[in-house]
Design brief:
Elements: H1 3-23, H2 37-61, H3 67-89, H4 102-124, H5 133-159, H6 164-195, H7 197-202
Helix pairs in contact: 1-2, 1-3, 2-5, 3-4, 3-5, 4-6, 5-6
């Protein structure tokens, strides 16, 4: 297995650490030793996102792109981003409500499952569907939103830098960024299916 594929697998493994940092209770055996869980989650996510850039760059630079990597890389992205969005549902805003609405996460996850299903159908036909440019923009949008949310959570829960006014602004910012991300996710998914419609029409 080449280095880019190892980095992709490492990103999946880092997802487990990210979820633990986000959700394990502060007074538990593990997080009592790492009280700044949101800060730790932010660092882990940034490192995982960097592996996403690094594996693609290395594969192109040294011309070691593989079909396995082409399939696994977007799956690893989906595992990481989906885990983050689900964790955000467990976080609360200043009103005690979920920071991110479940329906937004459902749309994002549904789109990713549908695209993964299309890739599997294409694989049965001997066709490898690589990530498209609009899909890459979608991934960048999702990761940017996640990083901003993580910074806000770390500032609020770990650093205690601002008070209630920041919390109100933060929640409104999260709502706006999530709505933009959901729209881009739907748009990219529709475009992906439209450009590859012959694959699933042929198997209908």
């Amino acid at each position: 297995m080449n280095l880019p594929n190892r980095l992709t697998l490492a990103r999946i493994g880092m997802t487990g650490l990210f979820v633990a940092a986000m959700l394990l209770p502060r007074d538990g055996l593990i997080m009592s030793r790492f009280p700044d869980g949101k800060t730790l989650a932010l660092v882990i996510f940034i490192l995982a996102a960097l592996t996403d850039w690094a594996d693609g760059w290395l594969a192109r630079k040294y011309k070691i792109e593989t079909s396995f990597g082409a399939l696994l890389d977007p799956v690893a992205d989906k595992v990481l981003t989906t885990a983050a969005f689900i964790c955000f549902i467990e976080q609360h805003n200043y009103r005690g409500q979920p920071l991110v609405s479940g329906w937004m996460v459902l749309i994002i996850v549904a789109r990713d499952f549908l695209v993964t299903g299309l890739r599997l159908v294409a694989g049965d036909q001997g066709v490898v569907l690589k990530a498209e440019q609009l899909g890459k923009h979608k991934t960048i949008s999702q990761m940017t939103t996640i990083i901003v949310v993580l910074i806000g959570l770390a500032a609020r829960d770990d650093w205690h830098l601002w008070g209630e006014r920041f919390d109100v602004f933060f929640c409104r910012l999260v709502l706006g960024m999530m709505l933009s991300t959901v729209l881009l996710t739907v748009w990219s998914g529709f475009g992906y299916f439209w450009r590859n419609r012959e694959i699933f029409v042929h198997n209908a």
